[in-house]
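Pipeline run #58 for the internal structure catalog. This entry was flagged by the ingest filter as a single-chain record with no existing model, so it goes straight to prediction. Upstream metadata was stripped on purpose; only the residue string is passed forward. Reviewer on rotation: M.T. Logging verbosity set to normal.
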Amino acid sequence: MNHLEFKISLAPFYPASEILVAKLGEIGFESFVEDEPYILAYILKSDFNDFNLTQVLNEMESFSKIKIEKKEIPKENWNKRWENSFEPITLGDFCIIRAPFHSSNPNIKHEIIIEPKMSFGTGHHETTQLMIELMKGIDFADKKVLDMGSGTGILAILAEQLGAKSILAIDIEEWAFENMNENLERNNCSRIKTKLGGEEQLPEDENYDIILANINKNILKSQFETYAKLQLANQRMLISGFFQTDLKELSNRLQDYNYALEISIVENLWTSALFVKG
């Protein structure tokens, strides 16, 4: 299945670019590349709805002047695009996310090798980096982990490297699911089970020490009740994919399921938060 590429110019670029990416993610766009003053946004041709995009662009008029170009991208051209634009992400001496065509760095504790293809999750987006920052401070040894909206599998791979005894990684997008499984093999993972789908794929008789969910605000809100049924007291949930202004709303919703906010971190308005179940 081919994808559509939208080249969207923004003036001013910030903070409109962050708001636009969040809104496009809610209507099915799955991959983004920032190349100021442009956002390159990608969506499966079959998932594209012109009315939804028009609504988003109308909502953005108060933030920025927008120009847009559209073209169709054949599936086979995607890898070459990433090779031309994808740079390694280095998070201090804790973690490096790189493609197979980049050199290894033996001075960094954790190395994740991905070939992103069409799926979201190159490590470049603030939400992925914020999740990794929170994961750095959590003991994953011998823990059961659920990674919802796993994308390329970055967070699931890191959880295994941090010592988790088992990880269930789920994504609803077939492209992401295929890419994730390739990346798990590429990183020699042996404790990650994958499922294609959404919350309907979650087992009812399991509980997870740690839940990772980097999705978007609306999906998070709709799935909190399901997540809560999978955790016991003192177990942790890490969430991201939303703006700082959304944190209070999400925190209030999670209080209904006996979760308390332990810490939140912010970068360019994007937020990641750690909650502990009471």
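catalog note: The first strand starts at residue 3 and ends at 11.
catalog note: The radius of gyration is 18 Å.
status: ready for reviewer M.T.
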